[in-house]
Amino acid sequence: MDEYTRVGAARNPAIRGIEFYITYKQPYSEDRHIGRVAMKKIKGNEAVWHPPAFWLTDHNAQKLMDDLWHAGVRPSEYGEAEGEVKAMKVHLQDMRRLAFEAINESRNLTSDGQAIDE
């Protein structure tokens, strides 16, 4: 698979930030290029249509996310993950309750640990 544009990221403590690297591989060729993003000045609030600065395949977007993760960058919000953690905590509480009920039953104890009179 030709990967075309690849954006890499690495933490640089000297700048207290993340450095980004852009490479481009020509399709069907071994030619590779490195590049920089150049900013262009526009007038006032001039609305100018422009194409994206670059595009990434899903595979390379995932690589960029992985690079950022390894550099210590985390999402500000985890969204679904928070809900999953909450559901897991509720599930663990249920499992604890069931486990203690089973232990107490095997020892002939009530749910509050008192002996059952037989």
How would you sum up this structure, described in words?
With 118 residues, the protein is an alpha+beta fold. It has 2 domains: 5-70, no CATH class; 79-118, no CATH class. It is built from 2 helices and 3 strands, in the order βββαα. It has a 3-stranded antiparallel β-sheet with strand order 1-2-3. A hairpin with a 6-residue loop joins strand 2 and strand 3 (32-35). The mean pLDDT is 81.
Reconstruct the topology from this structure:
Blueprint: E1 5-12, E2 17-25, E3 32-35, H1 58-70, H2 80-106
Antiparallel strand pairs: 1-2, 2-3
Structure at a glance:
The protein has 118 residues and is α+β, with helices and mostly antiparallel strands.
Task: Write down the overall mean pLDDT.
Answer: 81
What is the tally of beta strands? 3
Low-confidence spans: pLDDT under 50, at least 5 residues?
Answer: none
Query: How many domains comprise the coordinates?
Result: 2
End-to-end distance: 73 Å
Strand order of the largest sheet: 1-2-3
Question: What percent strand?
Answer: 15-25%
Helix and strand run: EEEHH
Number of helices: 2
Structural class: alpha+beta
Percent range of helical residues: 25-40%
Estimate the global geometry from the Cα principal axes: elongated
The biggest sheet amounts to: 3 strands, antiparallel
